[in-house]
């Protein structure tokens, strides 16, 4: 077996010698970039994507769409400012092979797109992608008229035999393990012959802001979507069939990737400014303004962005994170440094994320001397004096950034495979060093 040196390399997490005071330009949102790419690929005319995130997950999405025949030209925008990608929706063709890596957005959003291609599309990915839930998408697509060959587990690897079109119509799914099942069916819904009506029949539904993001972005390209919030039935979303417009969309900074930098202000009693923080957004990271304020900071949203200031004190928190699960690792890291215990709830589905995040956070914080226990749906964190050591990341970008947060306050923390942050934030070590003035 060959060992990738990047995976075993240890990155000494910088210890903060004082309060940070920095402005950090956070790259574009993964969730917005990958939705925008899918919608542009399904449109009936070319579109622009400005300030797209360039990371492993978004480059995998672009490569997958290209493999099906979509043109994506990477370059500078028409006005010469910043990176912009031109998307030319020239067709959806098979045969094609798609590598999903470990990107939930790629493995869930693209099978419905592949069902519209005119030939077989093979999906494969990292070993972890075989374990992540996909049954909601596979079963639903079969009900809606698609032919899919998998190994019977309702997971990757699989082949979607695109027939050039899909009937669509009503479908029931249990999306309690991932909101991305709902988003996936809605995103391609306008291109199904009868559109789609998705009824969630599971007990819980995580990450609602991400479903709102899907609906908002669909509407912005001309789709008609009925939702529970717009007067429809609870847990039912309806998308009317119709052509999608090619738009010129500027991607917001990734607010979930702003998290470690805001945490740095909290942990060091410093100040961090994130330019271009949107005034109105569906990104779950916007909830950090409230959560990190409750944990001891203050923030102000101005025309230039979000200014977040730590008080030098960090408080524990009792919070339901079901809507904003991807923020859990960073909140757990801050909670481990707080002056009182924390309970993080509503995030059982994190056991099926990039890694089992509840197990990984418990093990890694405890190995630094912490006292974390797993509950049925989250974590209980009792802060203790931590010591240095290796913080393992399990190929999970958010484990790496969580370890870096702890490293600010605890000497001698070494992050294994910090390069895994490339999934959504390839510049992380550089941005972190620059924030610290190194
Ligand atoms: O739709 C999206 O862009 C996402 C939805 C969420 O997935 P889950 O609902 O599976 O947690 C989130 O955790 C993930 O990081 C991104
Ligand atoms: C859960 C996450 O990613 P994915 O899109 O792969 O589900 C995440 O980024 O925290």
TrEMBL record:
Residues bound to 3-phosphoshikimate: 30-31, 35, 178-180, 207, 326, 353
InterPro entries per the UniProt record, alphabetical: Enolpyruvate_Tfrase_dom, Enolpyruvate_Tfrase_sf, EPSP_synthase, EPSP_synthase_CS, RNA3'P_cycl/enolpyr_Trfase_a/b
Catalytic reaction(s) noted: 3-phosphoshikimate + phosphoenolpyruvate = 5-O-(1-carboxyvinyl)-3-phosphoshikimate + phosphate
Free-text function comment from the UniProt entry: Catalyzes the transfer of the enolpyruvyl moiety of phosphoenolpyruvate (PEP) to the 5-hydroxyl of shikimate-3-phosphate (S3P) to produce enolpyruvyl shikimate-3-phosphate and inorganic phosphate.
PANTHER family referenced in this protein's UniProt entry, alphabetically: AROM/DEHYDROQUINATE SYNTHASE, PENTAFUNCTIONAL AROM POLYPEPTIDE
Subunit structure: Monomer.
Protein name: 3-phosphoshikimate 1-carboxyvinyltransferase
Naturally occurring in which organism (per UniProt): Streptomyces poonensis
Gene symbol of the encoding locus: aroA1
